[in-house]
Design goal:
The protein has one domain. Helix content is 62%, strand content 4%. It contains 8 helices and 3 strands; from the N terminus they run H-H-H-H-H-H-H-E-E-E-H. Bound molecules: zinc ion (ZN).
Length: 289
Amino acid sequence: MSSKLQSLEKLQDTIADTFALYSAADGEQFAKGYRKYPKVWRLVTTSDMALEKALLSYFKKLAKTVATGINWQQYEQRVDKVKQASVLDFIQVNWTDQSLLVKVLLVKALKDAIEGGGSFVELETAINIGWTADNKYAQTFLQKYAVKLSGNLNKSTIELVKSSLDMSISLGESQSEATSRLINVIANPRRAATIAHTETVRAFAGGSMSVAAQVGVDRKRWDSTIGACPICAPLDGMTVALDKPFTTGIFSEPAHPNCRCLTKFLMPESGKPAEYDPDEVAKMVIDQY
Ligand SMILES: [Zn+2]
């Protein structure tokens, strides 16, 4: 390996460690296993950081789009007559377009996490299937996942916009007061960080579950992070069949927003590889939320 590449990787590792340290304040810290292989660790943290950055910049732009899309004349009328039709009626925003924009940024940012999840299983089982984010199972998972997640994010953004405007109307706020309330609600760095941390872990699980099925894993074991929350702590060490849920009804990490636990995988004791459908197993990761 060239010394240039080595020093670049060293720099990436320093950035990854620093990021992991400060972002642990948002919730759980990463379970130890994520750091076990430098390649996996780089991929996971790269996704997490990229998604947080992309979401925040998207939310900032969206805040402006929403603020300029409001018919303020209608808003003023509504301030006088509280509780008429939905406030969304006087906002000109194409939410379908917004959903597409989110989908594109999710696909771009979460590729590394999916690759990292699959690589983790390859390294753990010492079975290399040449997994990358371009693998057909990775692509199927990523597309389905990005569609569902962008739809869900869009829905919760619309709810936030609605409740912000409802609040402004009931308080009789001026246009500038209502605008700054909206901008604070939409361009929220905490929300961007939580989504990034949670969805990076989910994308990682999509990759790991898919590769686990492809290499013939038959069981999975929950690995809670140090200082895990009351939801995750009781799951620590629990082992179930690959296609079965843990006792709390979930199939894989994340168990809650900001969860950074990890699923580990076990090959059949008989030595005969198990046969699970990778698409079905990866789909469980998305269906459970
Ligand atoms: Zn957890």
